[in-house]
Specification:
It is a single chain. The protein folds into two domains: 49 residues, no CATH class; 82 residues, Winged helix-like DNA-binding domain superfamily/Winged helix DNA-binding domain (Arc Repressor Mutant, subunit A, Orthogonal Bundle), CATH 1.10.10.10. With 146 residues, it is mostly helical. It starts with 12 loop residues before the first helix and ends in a 5-residue tail after the last helix. The protein is built from six helices and four strands. 47% of the residues lie in helices and 10% in strands. The strands form two sheets. It has a two-stranded antiparallel sheet.
């Protein structure tokens, strides 16, 4: 690699990584090799801050709907709507993502209900805002700073 001009020097990379990772609070590198020493692997564990931020990010999108989008959906569903209509409203193309991140979250909160509860997969299924959903919207729209 040195001869090809792709590195700045020999034997400097790992010490630089160790020092940088130590200074920024990262977990130490994990070095691995097989019994025959046919490979060498340096595993860089994720920094704890990144892990925390990733969990927070996933928590906001998986099973939870932001307040603004929830209000948009609940207002739209004051009249019974098909799942596809709601999905188009929020601009989500992937059905499973929409169901997991939006529809199921609002159903679980009790803010949205199926019009045919005993047949959740019916082609005639529609979704409508519940009284709880209407109360939440009213409380949200009158809250300070919203």
């Amino acid at each position: 690699m040195k001869e090809l001009g792709l590195t700045e020097g020999r034997g400097t990379g790992i010490p630089k990584m160790l020092k940088s990772m130590r200074l920024n609070g990262s977990p130490p590198l994990v070095f691995e090799t097989d019994d025959d020493r046919t490979y060498f692997l340096a595993r860089l564990p994720l920094h704890p801050v990144f892990i925390k931020e990733e969990k927070e990010r996933k928590g906001k999108t998986t099973g939870q709907v932001t307040g603004q989008v929830a209000v948009q959906i609940l207002r739209f569903c004051e009249q019974p709507r098909k799942a596809g209509e709601i999905r188009a409203l929020v601009g989500v193309k992937h059905r499973q993502t929409f169901r997991e991140n939006y529809l199921n979250a609002l159903l679980a909160k009790g803010w949205l209900a199926r019009t045919i509860p005993d047949k959740p997969k019916s082609r005639l299924q529609r979704y409508q805002t519940t009284e709880e959903g209407k109360k939440w919207m009213q409380a949200t729209s009158h809250s300070p700073g919203r």
